[in-house]
Amino acid sequence: MPVSERQLAAFANTHAWRIPFDTSPRHLAGPGDGRHVTHGLAAAGWQRISDPLSPEIVLTSPEGRHSLQFDPQSVTSAWWRLRAEPTRTEPGWYAEFGELVPAELLAALTDALTAPSPDQHTDLFQKLRSANWQTDAQNTAHSPDGMCHIERRPARNDNGARFWAVETCEPGHSTPRGRRLWHAVFDSRTPIHLVNAFVTALADPAPLQRGMYDRTAHHSVVQQPSPLTPEQVVAAHTARLDAVRAQTRTAARRRQPKPATAPAHAGAARPAAHR
Predict the structure, then answer these.
(1) Compositionally biased, Low complexity: which spans (predicted)?
(2) Are 44 and 245 in contact (CB under 8 A)?
């Protein structure tokens, strides 16, 4: 399901009249435009299998193992759900995200999902410390403003495994945390490079772009006029889709089995029999 010219034009039309504002910190920027996620997956070959006239969106990967559900009518606090079915060699896993999770953070994760898996994984907590987050005993990290928290929590009935939980909360009054604004949960089997992609995008100090009247997660968010023009915002979106298509082709080539090489003596021709 490639992104059509009509869909790109609709995205451009949405952003053409908006004056972009640099919005930070990222965890308070609000949901933004969900097409950062859906367009990226479409560029990677994912297909929509849900009713086109329903507000619910369900996309599946080309091989059918992964699915992403967006349900703005969800009766729970999770509006986005990402699933991977188990295979003979890999376990299944699950991740969910709340209504106000910034779309750019989820898009960073889905981009990593469609890209070739990295050979090495960086230390997530070291990355957070480099971004001035406070870490406690290697299991908890807190954003500089104290409103976003990342934890490794014990998973139930999973032999001591831990899952990742991210929560952005209002400041507490006589309590460690106030009302929860949004959350993200990655079960214990979620590939660590996907968690890394999400957290790296979350801790990035660079602002996100939001329109003047876009919904944000909290009144303490900081917004300033962006040096970017609406045209540059749209151009960056288009360039990212091109990059997703390219990395998807690379990942597909890596998954292809290598042709078997014939034994060295197999190519030697036998002499013709004489009659």
Answers:
(1) 258-275
(2) yes
Q: Are strands 140-142 and 148-154 parallel, antiparallel or unpaired?
A: antiparallel
Contacts of 251 by beta carbon, 8 Å cutoff, 6+ apart: 114, 115, 116
Answer positive or negative: Cα dihedral of 41, 47, 51, 52. Answer: positive
Residue 225 · residue 19 · CB < 8 Å? yes
Q: How many residues does the chain have?
A: 275
The pLDDT tens digits for 119-128 are 777 788 888 9
Verdict on whether the full-model pTM lies above 0.85 = yes
Helix, strand, or coil here: 33? Answer: coil
Distance of CA 226 to the CA centre of its chain: 24
Sheet holding 21-24, edge to edge: 208-210, 21-24, 222-225
Q: What is d(CA 147, CA 152) in angstroms, rounded to the nearest whole number?
A: 17
* Tokens 């990355």 sit on residue: 127
Check if the beta carbon of residue 110 is closer than 8 Å to that of residue 191.
no
pLDDT, one tens digit per residue, over 173-215 is 766 788 999 999 999 999 999 999 999 999 999 999 999 899 9
